[in-house]
Design brief:
One of its GO terms (cellular component) is exocytic vesicle. The protein has 348 residues and is mainly β. It is built from four helices and 20 strands.
């Protein structure tokens, strides 16, 4: 189920890892978890269901425990997802924006076969009040699909800076559809200039011939980054090969300070790649603005086949755009060659 992908650990035992001297290694067969990846707020199926109905909830801040609380009460008159079976299995999900990666999502239980679910659950965030007041609350309702393609049923977004914190009562809010710009990811976050290459096992002559396959990622530069503060952007790139989010999968570039058009010229090499792994793996590159206390997510790309599946398991990070899929496919078909591309960053 796509929204619980961050809570599942995958165990693969197909291959043994072959260490590579001087390279950054990712064992595609290791025990791994996707909990470290930046997951999408809007993963799932948008087009099949029209948003309708209302949601009842209340907000509160517990000063003593420094905890933001979302009291989710119930929903009414939600859309029917499976009309043949007259079925909707809804749950509610929340994010704090814009830094959804750091704060993470919270969600209620799933209620089966109802368009009027009753939850009476509290979703909690440990967060300082002054930090909370620069956030927005995104609350969305989803149909839970056992095959992993969850359907969006509607949402509401609240600016917490203008929220009346003396109002602790349950209130009803109409669920709204997603705008086309948000669904299609056309909000401009910058463009990454990079090259990638796949070296199959045993494909090179001489001592550099890799015993297992390698993926090379050359991060060149990024243009037109979001500037979150007046002093500029101190940016760096994180890289994972999903589903592996262990320390050995994690790589990052240096920090380029006060520049919305940073030049990195940084190459990352992952070994342990067998050719069949390319169908199930995903290279996730994310841009971050560095600060002393926390890093702010700026945008990212995911390179893979975008099938929604990894080793037969539904995952929501296998959501590559058409451009990203085409880039990955070109690399797969032109082995041992650098494939160049300019890819727009998106709000993963």
């Amino acid at each position: 189920e796509s929204d619980t992908a961050s809570e599942i650990s995958f165990q693969f035992s197909k291959h043994k890892k072959t260490p590579s001297i001087g390279s950054h290694s990712s064992d595609m067969a290791s025990v791994s978890s996707v909990s470290g990846s930046v997951l999408s707020v809007y993963s799932g199926d948008f087009g099949s269901v029209d948003a309708q109905g209302t949601v009842e909830f209340a907000l509160d801040y517990d000063e003593k425990n420094r905890e933001f609380q979302v009291h989710v009460s119930q929903c009414k008159d939600l859309a029917v997802v499976d009309e043949k079976k007259d079925r909707t299995d809804p749950y509610v999900k929340t994010y704090l924006l814009p830094d959804k990666a750091r704060m993470g999502k919270r969600k209620t239980s799933v209620k089966k076969r109802t368009v009027n679910p009753i939850y009476n659950e509290v979703l909690r965030y440990k967060i300082e009040k002054m930090v909370l007041l620069i956030q927005k609350l995104n609350l969305s309702v989803w149909h839970n699909d056992p095959l992993g393609r969850n359907s969006f049923l509607g949402e509401i977004e609240l600016d917490l800076a203008s929220w009346d914190w003396s109002n602790r009562k349950l209130n009803w809010y109409p669920l709204k559809p997603r705008s086309l710009s948000a669904v299609n990811g056309v909000d401009h976050r910058g463009v990454m200039n990079l090259s990638i290459k796949y070296v199959p096992p045993g494909s090179l002559a001489g001592p550099k011939n890799p015993p297992s396959g390698e993926v090379h990622i050359w991060v060149k530069d990024v243009k037109d980054l979001l500037q979150l503060r007046p002093s500029g952007v101190d940016s760096f790139v994180k890289c994972y090969v999903l589903p592996d989010t262990s320390k050995k999968s994690y790589q990052k570039t240096r920090i380029v300070k006060r520049d919305t058009n940073p030049v990195f010229n940084h190459t990352i090499v992952y070994d342990g790649f067998h050719t069949e792994d390319l169908k199930d793996a995903c290279v996730e590159l994310t841009m971050w603005d560095h600060e002393k206390l926390t890093n702010h997510f700026l945008g990212g790309i995911r390179l893979g086949l975008g099938t929604g599946l990894s080793y037969g398991i539904p995952v929501d990070w296998m959501d590559s755009t058409q451009e990203e899929v085409a880039f990955w496919q070109e690399m797969m078909s032109a082995t041992n060659e650098w494939i160049e591309g300019l890819l727009p960053l998106r709000s993963l």
